[in-house]
Amino acid sequence: MSQDQKKCHLICVSKALDDAYKRLTQSDSKSLLKKYLTQEIYDELKQKQTPTFKSTLLDCVQSGMMNLDSGIGIYAPDPEAYSVFAPLFDPIIEDYHMGFTPQNSHPPLNWGNLNTLVNLDPQNKYIISTRVRCGRSIEGYPFNPCMSEDHYIEIEKKMENIFQGLSGELEGTYRPLTKMTKCEQERLIDDHYLFKEGDRFLKAAKACRFWPTGRGIYMNKNKTFLIWVNEEDHLRIISMEPGGNLGDIYRRMIEGVKAIEQQVSFSRSDRFGYLTFCPTNLGTTIRASAHIKVPKLSSDKEKLEAVAEKHHLQVRGTRGEHTESEEGVYDISNKRRLGLTEYEALKEMQDGILEIIKMEDSL
Ligand code: ARG
Fold first, then answer.
1. N or C: which end of the chain has fewer CB within 10 A?
2. In 207-339, which residue ranges form alpha helices assigned H by DSSP?
3. For the chain, first and last CA: distance in Å?
4. Where do the annotations place ATP binding (predicted)?
5. Are residues 141 and 170 in the same domain?
6. Is position 173 annotated as part of the catalytic site?
């Protein structure tokens, strides 16, 4: 770009940003973006850019500005955005992760004592399936909006090589999206294995460019260990199975993380732990969830919300984020992932789910 073109580009960005900001402030959006992007912070940040990838405030906030029903509304286009746009990211992070202030640092990795994690539903009455996932970014690569098509291809190649070395319970096959029929994809999505295509929140954040290049899913034979490649994060490492055997599911995810970590370095910051595209996933990046059927509590939504809040849980609909519950089935997980250890995140989910089951039993 010539100097003139650069100037023109910046003027366009600033006009688009002003318009979108106006729309946001006039809307009744409940997003954390709307809550924390005050005029003062907006004015402070609107001219800033990250040093390496030149990401702007618009790159951070466009998803939440285009999707006024966002819960959060902000993504980090590259790792530097977390510091350059800290006056906006910090309060959002503090709110979502419940009190992680700019003075706090994320603790070192600690998987904890797995023997203290139990089967959450030994009689198989309530829990349909349990899942534990973490996200990882590969060192040396930016996040989605700043990735080139070659970055996607390189990461996928790197991972395909690593997958070939996975053995025992983790052994499986990698399926690139480019070689899957729509029908196969839909089946895997319906069975809760694969990510959806065309998530409007990610799309607006420029996280779906060059789709389906470089995207795919690795699955072990039993479909209990999965890795998503280049969806929202470079990697999502997932362990899941029917029932409530949390300890075993968590153990398998850890094995997978350790096996991959021997071959590739992950991006980690002193303050935020593992770095991810979305600020909700920073830190441990762990989301431990149960697909749980609680028809009685479901008809007393207030009660369910109250117990969830008490245990710092997040209640999602049957098909996950931004969906409704079908027949009293919810996807319930730990909410915060930053400022506590991996083990503490698991324990928070376990304690909460056990209480929810107890309540449902007593109704
Ligand atoms: N940007 C979306 C919102 O604000 C999703 C946020 C959290 N989920 C995620 N997959 N990162 O509602």
1. N
2. 246-261, 295-298, 301-310
3. 66
4. 129-133, 192, 236, 287-291, 316-321
5. yes
6. no
The predicted structure's pLDDT at residue 319: 84
Strand partners, 173: 219
The 3-state secondary structure of 100-151, one letter per residue: CCCCCCCCCCCCCCHHHCCECCCCCCCEEEEEEEEEECECCCCCHHHCCHHH
How much distance in Å is there from the Cα of 116 to the middle of ligand 1? Answer: 31
Active site residue 169: no
Q: Do 346 and 239 share a structural domain?
A: yes
Task: Report if residue 101 sits inside a domain.
Answer: no
My answer on whether 158 and 247 are in the same domain is yes
pTM score: 0.96
pLDDT of residue 22: 96
Helices (H), the chain: 3-26, 32-36, 39-45, 57-66, 81-84, 86-96, 149-164, 182-190, 200-204, 246-261, 295-298, 301-310, 342-362
Based on the fold, state whether residues 38 and 129 are members of the same structural domain. no
Query: Does 277 contact ligand 1 (Cβ within 6 A)?
Result: no
Least confident among 123-127, 150-154, 300-304: 300-304
Range of the domain at 50: 3-96
Q: Which atom of ligand 1 is nearest to the CA of 281?
A: 11
Classify residue 84: in a domain, yes or no: yes
Of 39, 66, 96, which residue sits at a domain end? 96
The domain that holds 87 is classified in CATH as: 1.10.135.10
